[in-house]
Amino acid sequence: MHEQLLFALEVSLNGLMTGVLYSLVALGFVLIFKASGVFNYAQGVMALFAALTLVGFQSGQVPFAHLINAVFGSNIHHFGWHLPVILSILLTLLVMVLLAVVIEKLVLKHLINQEPIVLFMATIGLAYFLEGFGDLMWGSEIKRLDVGIPQGISESIENFTFESLGYGFFIDRLDIVATAVAAVLVISLTVFSQYSRVGRALRAVADDHQAALSVGISLRYIWVVVWSVAGFVALVAGIMWGAKSGVQFSLSLIALKALPVLMLGGFTSIPGAIIGGLIIGVGEKLFEFLMGPLIGGATENWFAYVLALVFLVFRPQGLFGERIIERV
Amino acid sequence: MKLKTAVIVATAMSLCAPVAYAELVVPWLSYRTGPYSPSGIPAADGFADYFTLLNERDGGIGGVPVRVLDCETGYNTQKGVECYEATKGEGSLVYSPLSTGITYQLIPRATADGIPIHSMGYGRTAAADGTIFSHIFNFPAHYWDGASIAVKHILSLNDGDISGKKIGLVYHNSAYGKEPIRTLEEFSEKHGYELMLIPVDHPGQEQKSQWLEIRREKPDYLLMWGWGVMNAVAIQEAANIRFPMENFIGIWWSGSENDVLPVGERAHGYKALALHGVGNGFPVFDDLQKFVVDAGMAAGAGDQVGTVLYNRGMYGALLIAEAIKTAQEIHGVADITPAMMRDGMEALEITEEKMTALGLPNFGPAFAVSCENHGGNGIAMVQQWDAENGEWNIISDMIQSDKEIINRLIMEDSAAYAAENNIEPRC
Predict the structure, then answer these.
(1) What is this structure's pTM?
(2) Core-most of A25, A98, A220, B175, by most CB within 10 Å?
(3) Distance CA A120, CA A114 (A)
(4) What is the pLDDT of residues B351-387, one digit of tens each?
(5) Is the Cβ–Cβ distance between B35 and B75 less than 8 Å?
(6) ipTM score for this prediction
(7) How far is A246 from chain B (nearest CA, A)?
(8) Of residues B201, B192, B199, the one with CA closest to residue B220
(9) Region label for B100, one of left (φ > 0), alpha (ψ between -120 and 50) or beta (otherwise)
């Protein structure tokens, strides 16, 4: 096979894998938007906060240590233990559920029946608060996240492709794990929303708030559930991205990568988030491979948005978004 | 009665009025928030702690206390300019922007206002030409020195012959990251290597395309001009494609603990240029511990002392403090003005004897600043990460950059700047 074609194939495969990582972030946005019509600006920061909390629990870090030391003149930093990964993840999940409860009680409850833009502004405030709160709680230094996910080139794939095609493909083992996790996550979320009682209530709220309330579904309870699930998705995204780059502030910027995915896939579709992520991932990588050398490279950031905008010209609601029909 | 009341009011006013006292105001445009805060915090702490040490141990400089004026920029150029405008009226002696973008914006403003800027190892490289850039200083070394020193290190690994080799530059796609390109192109003509350019967009969290390209093109060596999360991701990806770490060399802004710790043991062997010594094994750290950290006066939690970027901030403060001393000696006054500060910076001379007396033997190069040369002598070292012990080690002697080519490039660039801005050469 022609060398350039093999390179393009390798780039496409890696684009698909990267797209899955984008989708993981986009899923959190979709869940909350679907259930409450809120575009949660804080989703990226939630991923950062979840990852910070996970590392904090795992390494036995004392929360608010800097604040405690500054106020009381003490010098405490760690409890001296290292928690197992599973226990740390469960505790982090508990924190994300608590966070959902607090957000509902302190923010969302007071904004029922407000315009979507008001709720959006509230999530901007939440993002800034959570960012500072995370820093205060766990410190701002870069932390290493090690939950045992293998990293580096998959030698079996490299050897297999070398023997069969004459060129060994690079696939990161972390990306393979991320793809498997994303698949399990999407199946679980689909089963949860289609077949569980809470899932059906969630869909009812998404379809019509008033109708859902009239049959006794608690809007506030549903919001807590949705924000908890979004917190869980944020934790998964935080783990995958944190394992790649360490846990630090920039993790919150992965939300920027989710926006074109949402524009393309639609804000209300879980499959849309996945397909959108894959298209953006492959599109930006192939464009960089083919056009990057001609126009100076570093095209990925802007090309993802251009690609999404092109799709919007033909389908304003996104590939899988709900068509808005307004009759006079 | 009225007179009595007036006397009481006048007395009360005089007691309440602020007492004018001398102080040396040294601004630091910090970023303790935002995506670059893990790098901004230790540098800001090191800078502030050194001046706290001078205040607590020596009573300031020449008997005048130093006030560090910290202004938060979030590494945002616009905020940096706002910080400058908001603080320049407070008697600010010299600005340390800690950002190439902010430095570029401040060059014409600070020059017009007569306030010096110290962009240590960053900013506009051509500012080393003091005949054109009267108020901008980038000693002890600048980006083009860095590029030359990296190439010299590679030369030393190849018995002085790198013709036919392929050297890649992974760079932050910004004014900062693009700085060394021109120099590396010149050196490629001189030494016969092939230069491969690999830009990475801000913030650099996702670099898969770039590293697939590197894997395909198989460069012999890689240089990196990165900042923030880009560095750690690049080192991670280099490990992923099994690029030999000892052939991967970052500029001094790509060589802190933040860049290697997230990668774990796979970062072992990664190299970076070093503007100064590493670790806290220097006598000055005993004083810092005693007078600053133990006294509860540290700018941060005291947990950054001795890290690369803490040392960077501390070194910047030390050079400014020595320039203040020089200015005081030249003008015979302790409470100096920005104009006097500029004179002090221009006459600064750092010797090994001076560094030893300051508690930092063999920490940084000896150099002298002059009216013509604002960039120092262009000397740096190479450090290498030891992942097993979690520490950087200096692995080279002081390396002198190739001044022959660099000075020519600086003259060309500064002449172009002078022509654009109608600046008459001085000195």
Answers:
(1) 0.90
(2) A25
(3) 10
(4) 999 999 999 999 999 999 999 999 999 999 999 999 9
(5) yes
(6) 0.89
(7) 5
(8) B192
(9) alpha
Task: Kindly identify which residue of chain A lies nearest to residue B38, measuring between CA atoms.
Answer: A141
For residue B219, give the amino acid letter: P
Helix (H, G, I), strand (E, B) or coil at A323: coil
Token pair for residue B38?
């893990």
Q: Say if A287 falls within a structural domain.
A: yes
Q: Is 1.10.472.10 the CATH classification of the domain at B24-142+281-378+406-421? A: no
Output the CATH code of domain B143-278+382-402: 3.40.50.2300
Of B201, B229, B240, the CB nearest to A301: B201
Q: Which distant-in-sequence residues (6+ apart) come within 8 Å of B324 by Cβ?
A: B24, B61, B62, B66, B93, B336, B341, B344
Q: How many domains does chain A have?
A: 1
B104: tokens are: 């570029």
For residue A38, being part of any structural domain is answered with yes
Measure Cα distances from A201 to A108, A211, A231 in Å.
18, 11, 19
**What's the Cα-to-Cα distance from A172 to each of A81, A158, B25, rounded to whole Å?**
31, 10, 51
pLDDT tens string A279-303: 999 999 999 999 988 888 888 889 9
Cα A240 from Cα B206, distance rounded (Å)? 12
In a domain, A325, yes or no: no
Peptide bond before residue B140 is cis, with ω within 30 degrees of 0: yes
Q: Provide the CATH number for the domain around residue A52.
A: 1.10.3470
| Sole residue written with tokens 């030249």 | B330
Q: Which residues pair with B393 in a beta bridge?
A: B384
Name the nearest CA neighbour of A274 among A285, A290, A261, A291: A261
CB-based contact (8 Å) between B360 and chain A?
no
- Domains of chain B, residue spans: 24-142+281-378+406-421, 143-278+382-402
